[in-house]
Amino acid sequence: MAPTKRRKAVGLIACLVLGLFVLGVGQAQAKKPEVITMLLCPLGCGTVEGNTILGSMVNKSDPNLILRAQETPGYMFNIREMGKSKHRWKNTVFGTEDDILNYAPLGGQPFFKEFLPQPIKEKFMLVYSDAWWTQGHWWVTLDPSLKKISDLKGKKLGIGLRSQSDWGFNARLDLEFGYGITMKNTKIYHLGPAKMVEELIDGKVDAITMGAGTEPFLKQWLVAGPMRNLEASGRKIYYIGLDPEVVEKLNQKFGTSYMALTIPPGTLPGQTKPLIAGADRGYYAAHHTFSEELAYKLVKAVVQYGKKMGEVHALWKIWSPELMVSGLTDTNAHPGAIKAYKELGIWKFRKQYKPVKLWWEK
Predict the structure, then answer these.
(1) What was the pLDDT predicted at 180?
(2) Res 30: pLDDT
(3) pLDDT attached to residue 10
(4) What HEC string does 253-267 produce?
(5) How far is CA 274 from CA 128, 240, 263, 264, in A?
(6) Domain 33-130+281-361 classified CATH 3.40.190.10?
(7) CATH superfamily, region 138-279
């Protein structure tokens, strides 16, 4: 081959190789996975394991969408982390509750400073609800003489960690603002759910807070793991409910949306009478700058696999489209989530439930 022809051939091959390389890079970039990080709670809480399974299902059908379940110390940690970490805002959702979102701006004030050292005034929006939770809003004891929460004053009490919204924060809130029971007049120990069960059985504390989850129809109840551990001890368990007037007192004082729910007899181990528990609503929330596309895809995925998840994971047995939109409004819900709900035909269900009003709406 003549030198000129050889140079032309080499040049043609080089252009072809370069073109294929550029095309390959373009295809690789187009297929770059979209990652949604999910800040959850301590390992063992259930949602870490459940969302890991959900992520596996989603990724099998859509290899370019990854749900990355991340263990955290609890919901109080989550709100603080999201308040300061701007790099998370566009691709992270976090486990929280309606009341915690409203307490966030009160950080740094008396009582709240212990749990929220600084005010958090970022605008977070709701993506979907995963449960109605009662953790921290009722108690158990092995002492039959303790019949009301007011009887706990001056006793030794075990509650959740300071990084936990329900087990720790809400328990303290109920005690102090509902009954005048404080760290000054009562021995209150932040032990964590597992440890406080051990301490109760060993007689080192007189009563501990406990929990269960439910859904808008109040037909399905999830009994918390620590409650099952206490049941396994074989001891006689006595239940102490929250007074309904305290629920209303807290709502009036803080503008929250706590509910007084009745746990039917037989729901809990050895429970023979109805038990009144306070409840808040659990949500996955996101910063208002969170990707609308990711919010849309996340809601679509949860609805697609929600029923199947209920067959493989206990926490998902309470799932329903109605639960997902309970408390959501045109104002407080993320636009990407609303788009998905409307396409799926379930946005209308939100009207059946009392809406959540977040602090930045007031």
Answers:
(1) 98
(2) 57
(3) 43
(4) HHCCCCEEEEECCCC
(5) 29, 11, 6, 5
(6) yes
(7) Periplasmic binding protein-like II (3.40.190.10)
